Amino acid sequence: MKLRSIQFLRALAILLVTYTHTLGFQEPFATAYQQGFFCWEHIGAIGVDIFFVISGFIITYSAGRYMGGREGRRFLVNRFLRLIPAYYAATLLYLGIELVHMIRVNAFGHISFARVMNTIFLLPFLTGHSTPNRC
Question: Considering 41, 62, 83, which residue would you say is the last residue of a domain?
């Protein structure tokens, strides 16, 4: 069953994220009006938040049939087995591409041990870096 309101929110989130990325892609060539307009250049980041809300709703909606600790664990194991293999396959592909690129360009140091560990363990706690908010 498709929930049309969720599909609408997904479309809105996609448009917001795409808007922000297109501003970033065009920056080397020109300056858009939105780049200096009350920090609207980052308005598309709300799309990521919308995706998280949708994910939480869908997980709750689909997990409604699981009751109790045993079934809750079964849900988590099923979810883990469905998502993690694809995540690690994509991670290995990315690391392979980055290593080939680093060897070709002879520019080592882009991938650190801490970043790899953060990716493997799904917990970005080793670097301690935070992105400052410009607005």
Answer: 62
Looking at the structure, do residues 53 and 31 belong to the same domain, yes or no? yes
Domain shared by 1 and 47, yes or no: yes
Cβ(49)–Cβ(20) below 8 Å:
no
Handedness of CA 49, 51, 54, 58 (dihedral sign): negative
Last residue of a domain, one of 62, 89, 109: 62
Q: What is the pLDDT of residues 5-44, one digit of tens each?
A: 888 998 999 998 888 888 777 777 776 666 666 666 677 7
Look up the pTM and report it.
Answer: 0.55
Sign of CA dihedral 111, 83, 10, 38: negative
pLDDT digits (tens, 9 = 90+) for 57-115: 888 888 777 888 888 888 889 889 999 999 999 999 988 888 888 888 777 666 777 77
Q: Is the domain of 11 the same as that of 49?
A: yes
Phi-psi region of 124 (alpha: psi -120 to 50; beta: other; left: phi over 0): beta
Q: How many domains does the chain have?
A: 2
Determine contact, residues 87/120, Cβ cutoff 8 Å.
Answer: no
